[in-house]
Amino acid sequence: MPVSAHVVGWGYYLPSRRMDNETLEKQIDTTDEWIQERTGIRERRIAGPHESTATMAVEAAKAALQCSQLDPAKLDLIIVATITPDFIFPATACLVQDAIGATQAAAFDVSAGCSGFVYALALADQAIRAGSARNVLVIGADTLSRFVNWQDRSTCVLFGDGAGAIVLQASELPGGVVGTTWGCDGSGWELLYVPAGGCRQPASAETVSNGLHYLRMNGREVFRFAVGVVPRVTRALLEQLNMDVGDVDLFIPHQANARITAAVARQLGLENERVVDVIDWCGNTSAASIPIALCHAIETGRLKEGDLVVLAGFGAGLTWGAAAIVWDRVPTALPRGWLAFYYRWRYRLAAWRSRLRRQWRRFRDAISMRLHKRWREL
Ligand code: ACO
Fold first, then answer.
1. Pocket of ligand 1 contains residue 193 by CB under 6 Å
2. 68 backbone dihedrals φ, ψ, rounded to 5°
């Protein structure tokens, strides 16, 4: 029997610190009116000093796992879509794997800008269809507040921090992820990038003093690209499925700018009731924007069983991607009353396990160093 990937859990995390347009008015030459009119953003969330892409991803993952009622040890694969990883390496997904105690899971990151979540979803879907994974955790998480120049009004007003996650599970039932598509035009890489910090220009006092560690963006060109590519990729996906825009119950585009969302919806002939737009309260959260918008649609009762939901991403690269999901929920077994208690202990155990393993490695290293020294002295 062929299997397909079904969404069985979802969750998101936003930092508690809010930054509204009035606060930005006091810091840079901008106005609440300009930001709302040109972007649709009213406020965004900014990660606190102890938060990072990994910590936010872990919170979103925990919410999604609890929703799915799946034991973390049953996960086969964790994919984190991010362009703001905690480290150049290892992958942020490995930090998530350790924190949630997903002892049987492989883990890696996907870097595809704001299309990252759709790319990760497509990879997870293919791993499930190929039979190499049954349960996959897909996360989109970004902390762009650490990479924007807070003196550059053309970029700093746009971005916010956050994370969103879903759990995909193999099932022989029809529905779930019914189609995915993706693409890239690398000739546009300079339209949105961070010049320094990679191997081409490693971080140095000079790169920092020249502000090369900050995000650079040609907003107008990214706008043009988005408005052109999103309708095209959405139509291509629907055609692949022998469907058309009339079959779409809910459309969730990457939340970059309310004007982009409106222009795309207009081109596709989608009325407001079928389009999710949450940018006003969280800004552009990059790879996290689609799962956050998806969770919000679920929370507000906009997704019903049997609905066709289309996700469409675009972003740095330039990349794009779309995914179609027939919404259903395949429940998994775990007693509900015990759930919160069970997960609390599961994560506490994961933290102990991690600490123990790290200490054991340190101890083993110290012993072998001592033995090595003794052997050389003999
Ligand atoms: N406040 C006040 N004025 C501003 C601000 C601001 N925050 N920012 C720019 N301006 C000014 C400009 O200086 C310019 O002034 P000028 O005419 O005197 O030169 C004027 O406003 C118009 O500037 P534009 O850049 O033409 O403004 P535009 O209408 O294009 O809006 C924006 C800019 C919001 C950035 C828009 O181009 C956009 O949203 N682009 C898409 C960006 C995007 O989606 N990026 C994320 C991609 S996803 C990823 O992978 C991370």
1. no
2. -80, -15
